[in-house]
Design goal:
Blueprint lengths: L4 E6 L10 H10 L2 E6 L4 H13 L4 E5 L11 H11 L4 E10 L7 H18 L3 E6 L2 H11 L6 E3 L6 H9 L3 E4 L10 H6 L8 E3 L25 H12 L3 H16 L2
Parallel strand pairs: 1-2, 2-3, 3-4, 4-5, 5-6, 6-7, 7-8
Helix pairs in contact: 2-3, 4-5, 8-9
Length: 263
């Protein structure tokens, strides 16, 4: 497993991958990214992610959930549809779910209701949660604390917070997903300070492709599209900041992902 990486958050259903998805997956594998968990952001993308995982059974798994941006449309039929999706053997987590008060694309009350419903579903199906939080830490942590005893696990997707948020998430037993945000010399400095504090057993890495292209990637693709093949660049940055070798970081995060998601 030396050098192998696992991307716990890619969005391969995104329109930007329509024309060359097979090549994107092949480039990822050639770069050592042997496993990917494709993120579901709403019911449509969750279905697409599950279909991709079924079509690439040696490389892809998926999550199914409703991002807070889409929370207002999450009704009783949506809950039934989500439960059906989660019965699939390669659908390994509930989410992306949580709270986003930065944009408030859905009313906050609707976000909290959808988040609570998905935590209840995760407890019922005994699958971990893939979590999103932006500018909503207090409410997010309070809701999560209520349901955490019933959950098999959770990971803070695309963690960009500081020491206080990290300590609260670790106290809640969460794992932490680090993206190319850490490669941004402007916005990622605070994250660089706290990443060494993440226990090795709780650390995972993700591209969030096609979003969050590492700012210091060279040469930069003209399309500015991020790909899972760039995960080694992110892993190298995380390893350097933590004072670890690349192979140690790769082995630890891959083992964590296999265990956490049951890959």
């Amino acid at each position: 497993m030396s050098g192998e990486l696992t991307d716990i958050g890619s969005n391969l259903w995104h329109d930007s991958f329509t024309g060359d998805l097979a090549e994107v997956i092949a480039r990822a594998r050639a770069a050592g990214v042997t496993r990917q968990v494709v993120t579901g952001a709403d019911l449509a993308s969750s279905r697409a992610a599950a279909a991709l995982a079924a079509a690439h059974p040696t490389a892809l798994w998926s999550t199914a959930g409703v991002h807070p941006h889409h929370a207002a449309g999450f009704d009783s039929q949506g809950r039934e549809d989500l439960l059906e999706l989660l019965s699939g053997p390669r659908v390994v987590a509930v989410g992306e779910c949580g709270l986003d008060y930065f944009r408030n694309f859905s009313p906050r009350e609707a976000q909290r209701a959808a988040f609570t419903a998905q935590l209840q579903i995760a407890a019922a199906v005994a699958k971990p949660v893939f979590l999103h939080q932006r500018d909503a830490h207090a409410d997010f942590a309070a809701i999560l604390a209520e349901y955490r005893p019933a959950l098999v696990g959770g990971v803070a997707h695309c963690f960009t917070g500081g020491a206080h948020e990290l300590e609260e998430y670790l106290a809640l037993g969460l794992s932490v997903g680090i993206t190319g945000w850490i490669c941004d010399e402007r916005r990622g400095l605070g994250l660089r300070e706290v990443v060494p504090r993440v226990p090795s057993a709780r650390l995972m890495i993700e591209s969030d492709a096609p979003y969050l292209l590492p700012r210091d990637l060279a040469p930069r693709p003209k399309s500015r599209r991020n790909e899972p093949a760039y995960l080694p660049h992110i892993a190298g940055t995380v390893a350097r900041i933590r004072g670890e070798s690349f192979d140690t970081l790769a082995a630890t995060t891959t083992q964590n992902a296999i265990r956490f998601f049951g890959l």
